[in-house]
Amino acid sequence: MARVDPKAVLEGRIPGRPPIALVLGLLGCSLCAVIALGIDALYGGSGFWMGLVLAFLPIPLLVALVLALDRMEPEPPRTLLLSFMWGAGVAVLGALVLNTLGMLYITVPIFGEGKGHFVSATFGAPLIEETLKGAALFGLLWFRRNEIDGFVDGIIYAALVGLGFAMMENVTYYMRAYEEGGAQQLQAVFVLRGLIAPLSHPLFTSMTGLGVAYAATHRRGQWAAPLLGLAAAMVLHGLWNGSTTLGAGGLLVVYALDFCLLLTLLVVVWVERRHNVHRIEAYLPMYASTGLVTPQDVRMLRTIPTRRAARRWARLVGGHAAARAMGDYQLAATELALLHKRAERGVAEPRWFVQRRDALLDLMALARQTFLRVPQQRPSPPPWAPPGLSGFSQPPDRPYRG
């Protein structure tokens, strides 16, 4: 078997080719973030550093919660990082410039000082900010369409873009709160933006993510679905910003709307995970003749706990390298089922389907060989199968040859 690069296979890129475009994108996004922070520091005074710390404080937990939704088929870490940095860099800096210019030359001259700020916040800012955040998702749809396997992927990428944007925006809000009302007002703003409603921007942008995910996995709606998702994101954002003028009642309605939206997205994640499990059960048995999968191995792949138990067993058998190989096998098998989902919906080009399928099978074979080469007696059979009934416990009658 030819040498296999597991990371390249799972990310769907050519082995041995460094992701130059992604690295340049990260550098550009980081530069934009530094410029935006520099502007805040220039005009923020003593509240800048306090605002920066408070804005960053909940981000690790929020990112972890978002990524927990995608444990069965995690997205490439570098692409996730680029999404977050796009929100924190390009989207924030672009929104800062365009929102400021819009108020100076359009809304305030036309509507006056007070009403102009309201129009800018309710109509201008949602249009500009959701377009800039959504540009990252449209870029994924254009350049990395095959990386988006379903609605969960669209939600994950959108949420990370939104979290990056919210983090940088909160620096400004906390900074201003400290300057205008001291520690007491800063505390109130942090509770509202950092604790009670930290997911507002991710929820808004998730509408665009749903539209982009639909376009990536269906033959119809290639333009309509992403544009409808973007429009929904703008409407929700506008309602949120406009509710500030409606008092406590308006805020209560918007908070309730966001909560219902969050529950809806969680249901979408749960339903899609169930469908993916059914696809694993439906498609992987057809590869039993390769020796890479048995009915017991399919059952192991069905749930997060059984996958975790398999990785623990692998670490017991062969250390960290074996645990990593088991993780590669699990991800490759899941990607194989999702590949058939694309073919089922008619969005997988035949030649690419064959190449991708063979690469995933090669990776599964490489991972399996890691266990079959372990010379010592195993301390126990695989926990998901009796001895001899898993591809990881004995050589197949007809071994797979890539």
From TrEMBL:
Pfam families: PrsW-protease
Keywords attached to this entry: Membrane, Transmembrane, Transmembrane helix
Keyword Transmembrane attached: yes
InterPro entries on file: PrsW
Keyword check for ATP-binding: no
Taxonomic superkingdom: Bacteria
Residues annotated as transmembrane: 20-42, 48-69, 81-106, 118-143, 155-175, 195-216, 223-240, 252-271
Ranges where the record places region Disordered: 375-402
GO function term, MF aspect, one: peptidase activity
PANTHER family: PROTEASE PRSW
Protein name: RsiW-degrading membrane proteinase PrsW (M82 family)
